[in-house]
């Protein structure tokens, strides 16, 4: 596709917002089987007022990005892992699993049909892809829905944090818990998120970009941020990341840990990280996820004080910078992808 066929959008100034695109993919599950799915134009969903998605949050979602490579190819990043995570979530919420073939078909068709909305190479923006699975149909009691809709919507987006690009953010430890150790924090249930809206607002009132959650059992160990996992480069020159049964297994974090170990030769560790005990050993901190990519965390608020890291909490450290560059270059096709992580649409 050449540039003239793209939508007339100010790609460089996009926020992380919904823009209505031309097509969405939809498939239905009823009587024990999935339909083959189709592209539609109507962005409004029609569903029964008794739908369990509305009453009991029997609903889950995924998030990934499509990017334009320099040669014009449109690339997805590790979409099979999103599918696997949605299937894990579905099992936990007693929803039918979307077969991998249908998931990938839905994602690819939605991106392809909206290719005029995929931001051009080098614009700094990307096409956010949001698959969702909801329980629909007539119901009142607390039981699984009689039918389900799998939908894939897409929207061109800019940076998640308003400051944009690779700029330093801050986090504030929340007085509220996100997820319980044996709850649903390790799956992508929509119900995990509305409680965080208030926690985020409280964090923002303190001047932070987002809330940081500690483990809810002891409130000692780092869990994750509102929509991103945490990675830390410490004084032992190791890249460490919290191990917790309550955090979302971030695809970005798993990829960054692999790159740190295989491309940068760093020792990596996935283990419980006790915030107050270890904070003095933190050299660089990062928040990572599809939306945030890798945002260096300059400072964290807890115990009534800011605790800052690299460059007085104002500069991007070299480890986060290198990790960010490596990931971004693979995702946009600038660096050879020896692991088969990118998938052409
Ligand atoms: C709570 C939470 N943690 C972490 C992530 C990052 O996960 P991923 O890298 O797979 O996007 C997300 C976003 O999906 C999230 O919502």
What does this structure look like?
This protein is an alpha+beta fold and 345 residues long. It has 2 domains: 3-158, D-amino Acid Aminotransferase, Chain A, domain 1; 169-331, D-amino Acid Aminotransferase, subunit A, domain 2 (D-amino Acid Aminotransferase, Chain A, domain 2). The chain contains 7 helices and 18 strands. It has helices at 52-55, 79-92, 100-113, 194-205, 251-262, 275-278, 318-331, and strands at 24-30, 33-34, 38-40, 59-61, 64-68, 74-77, 126-136, 147-157, 169-173, 210-214, 222-225, 229-234, 238-242, 267-271, 282-289, 293-302, 305-308, 342-344. Strands 1, 2, 3, 4, 5, 6, 7, 8 and 18 form a 9-stranded antiparallel beta sheet that branches. Helix 4 links the parallel strand 9 (169-173) and strand 10. Helix 5 packs across helix 7 (318-331). The radius of gyration is 20 Å and the shape is globular. The structure holds pyridoxal-5'-phosphate (PLP). Pyridoxal-5'-phosphate binds next to helix 5.
CATH topology descriptor of the largest domain: D-amino Acid Aminotransferase, Chain A, domain 2
How many β-strand runs?
A: 18
Helix share, percent: 10-25%
Task: Give the structural class.
Answer: alpha+beta
CATH architecture of the largest domain: Alpha-Beta Barrel
SSE series: EEEHEEEHHEEEHEEEEHEHEEEHE
Ions, cofactors and other ligands present here are: pyridoxal-5'-phosphate
The CATH superfamily of the largest domain turns out to be D-amino Acid Aminotransferase, subunit A, domain 2
The rounded distance between the terminal residues' Cα atoms is 13 Å
């Amino acid at each position: 596709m050449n540039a003239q066929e793209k939508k007339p959008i100010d790609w460089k100034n996009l926020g992380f917002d919904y823009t209505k695109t031309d097509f969405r993919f939809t498939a239905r599950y009823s009587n024990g089987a999935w339909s083959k799915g189709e592209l539609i134009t109507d962005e409004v969903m029609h569903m029964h007022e008794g739908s369990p998605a509305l009453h009991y949050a029997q609903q889950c979602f995924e998030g990934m990005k499509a990017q334009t490579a320099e040669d014009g190819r449109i690339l997805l990043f590790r979409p099979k892992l999103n599918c696997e995570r949605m299937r894990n979530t579905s099992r936990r919420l007693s929803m039918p699993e979307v077969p991998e073939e249908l998931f990938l078909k839905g994602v690819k068709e939605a991106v392809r049909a909206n290719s005029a909305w995929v931001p051009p190479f080098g614009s700094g923006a990307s096409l956010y892809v949001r698959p969702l699975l909801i329980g629909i149909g007539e119901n009142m009691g607390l039981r699984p829905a009689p039918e389900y809709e799998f939908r894939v919507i897409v929207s061109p987006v800019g940076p998640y944090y308003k400051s944009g690009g690779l700029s330093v953010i801050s986090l504030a430890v929340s007085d509220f818990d996100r997820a319980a150790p044996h709850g649903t924090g390790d799956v992508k249930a929509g119900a995990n998120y509305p409680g965080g809206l208030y926690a985020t607002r409280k964090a923002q009132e303190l001047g932070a970009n987002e809330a940081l959650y500690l483990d809810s059992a002891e409130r000692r160990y780092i869990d994750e941020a509102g929509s991103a996992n945490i990675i830390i480069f410490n004084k032992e020159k190791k890249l460490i990341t919290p191990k917790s049964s309550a955090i979302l297994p971030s695809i970005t974090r798993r990829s960054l840990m692999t790159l740190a170990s295989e491309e940068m030769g760093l020792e990596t560790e996935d283990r419980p990280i006790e915030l107050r005990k270890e904070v003095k050993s933190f050299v660089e901190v990062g928040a990572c996820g599809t939306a945030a990519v890798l945002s260096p965390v300059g400072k964290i608020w807890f115990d009534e004080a800011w605790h800052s890291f690299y460059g007085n909490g104002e500069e991007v450290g070299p480890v986060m910078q290198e990790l960010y560059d490596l990931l971004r270059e693979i995702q946009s096709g600038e660096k050879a992808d020896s692991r088969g992580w990118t998938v052409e649409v």
